[in-house]
Predict the structure.
Amino acid sequence: MKEIIYLDTQFLNSFLAQKNDGLPTLKSHERAEEIKDALESSDGHKSGSSIEAIFKTGDFEIPLVFKGPSGEIKGVWRPGTYSEEKAIASQTEAAKQIISTQMHDNALEEFIIYLNENTEDIYVTELTEDKNCIGKYVTKKSTFNIIDFDYLIKIMQADIIKMFMFDELDKKLDEINQQLKNIPKAQKNTKEYQQMNSFFKDRKVEIENTKKQTISELEKVEKMLKYLKEILPNSTFLIGDGIIAPLKEEFLREQGKELSFKYGNSSNLEITLLGKVTGKINSSELPQLNDIDIVLQLHQMIYFILESLKLTKKGDHIVSPVAIYFE
């Protein structure tokens, strides 16, 4: 059984129309009632996962996108940790949706059979360096991540992240500062007090410098995410083993931010992607922009930024998805 999270119904409509000399439809009232009964008795489960934000003392990480510098202060403290649809088919509009969903799910099975019958001509089962796969369909099963740039931009709030990263360290500094203030005035001329006070000031400066560096890095990442959101064709992407697939919102069975939250860091969960290979990332270096190919080189800027965020790498294939599902 397939748990489908993405299905390009426009593509499958075209496939069905060409295969059957027109797009088949189901209109009978009896059929709608039959579908209703089947749907009510087979309410499926929903699997869950989530994108993770890892907090440590002096450390913050959004997997795949950003990892802040460590704020560990040696000799002071050991880093601590922070803690299917179900519809009533009594009316025609509801019945149409159920019938349409069932038709497209069945069409996916027909398309898979069609590809298996035309292996090598239009279909490959592996993406390899020594074989040109562009223009062919591929089925790829691998671990994956769902990246939604709208969702990530909302997460990337520098002030909030800074608070979580340095809250524990700031508390420790405040405790030391209070201890220094409570030392009797007569003892403040001692060598021990001077050493302790000097140590406190040095650590405070070190932490403030780390804060500034972290904020600078966060703002840099935020700018890159906003830039990518503006220039990429979609806000939501599937990142798999050697592939990147843009996801059209209208073909997702759940919202992009919901998928990103559920599956954003699914390192041990495998998913199957069926789609058409449309390109390959041949270069991810920063373009020089100093010759007659400046317009074409601007396009490489996208791949440079994607690799900077550790989302893609040289050699990855770009796949236009037909279906994405769990098995």
